[in-house]
Amino acid sequence: MTGHGLRGGVTAVLAGLGTCLPPKVVTNDDLSLVLDTSDEWIVRRTGIRRRHVIEPGSSTSVLAAEAGRRALKSAQCDQADAVVLATSTPDMLCPATAPEVADALGLAGIPAFDVAAVCAGFVYALATGAGLISTGIAERVLVIGADTFSTILDPTDRTTRAIFGDGAGAVLLRQGEPGEPGALGPFDLGSDGSLSQLITVPAGGSRQRASGVPAAERDHYFTMQGKPVFKQAVTRMTESSRSVLARAGWTADDVDRVVAHQANARILAALADSLGLPPHKIASNIDRVGNTVAASIPLALADADLRTGEKVLLTAFGGGLSWGSTVLHWPDVVPQ
Ligand code: UT7
Asked: Where is this region: ACP-binding (predicted)?
């Protein structure tokens, strides 16, 4: 699906950016003490050197609220008309986590809801926030991506534990003009549920419970078929990027920086290759944070040292399968 998300000259403009990482750091050497892995393997196959994880007692909403608070500060604003939270690790299966986040920010009363599109979640949430603005439902939307995959990883799975980290990032979208720096769009969004089994948490939803058969203990853990997911990630992000660039009237050469979902440094290199871009145009902070799922794009935006006016392409891919892309001219914002 593609669309400009614009109506009557009103569009969503990125006006603030905030992030939050939990203080605890787990290095590759830390993992190699408890799993059959090594710093050498993880760096060579993924580019990841360390990741942040929450401590017991913390949760996704804590990180999300802090990132949201910082995004509001970055936008020099203390109000929003809606909170859209992208997450696949909500505090609870029910209710959504966003209302608690809104309440923690002193924004109780406004619409607040979760969007679940795994690693593509932040782009889906941006599109949702942009839609609320372009339809006149809201003037300012706080869009947050937050995940704590450390809470759903199989402690014995060396592959997923090497990759995922916890974190949150948020942007404040405000009503503005299509030509302004920070104006979002067009968007390209898509999914392919025929391949949903490549990335799953099998138990905990309605399917296993409805059967009446108790779930096996390990079925509550996250599973991923790494190799086919790798190939799909490169293909889908490339196609989605090309599609959104065509809609925007940009060529790949026009793009100053690509801020893609950070899943694996080799995926980022393959994406640069398939888009015909030099590697330095692809932002990467995966060495420091790993794959933070819905938080990945805002965390990478904050680390990318973007200059005002630069042409930025955002693209993401993940479980669902789901993918999405959008573009913007980078606005004059200071990440908090
Ligand atoms: O966020 C969006 C969705 N996620 C992604 O896009 C991730 C996509 N996939 C990947 O990034 C890669 O496929 C992985 C990093 C997950 C795995 O890398 P790979 O190069 O595809 O490894 P593999 O799964 O083919 O495994 C190769 C070998 C296996 O050993 P054998 O069977 O050849 O003896 C694995 O058991 O590497 C082994 N291995 C490890 N060895 C040391 C897997 N994980 C580790 C590890 N340390 N952490």
From this structure: 262-266
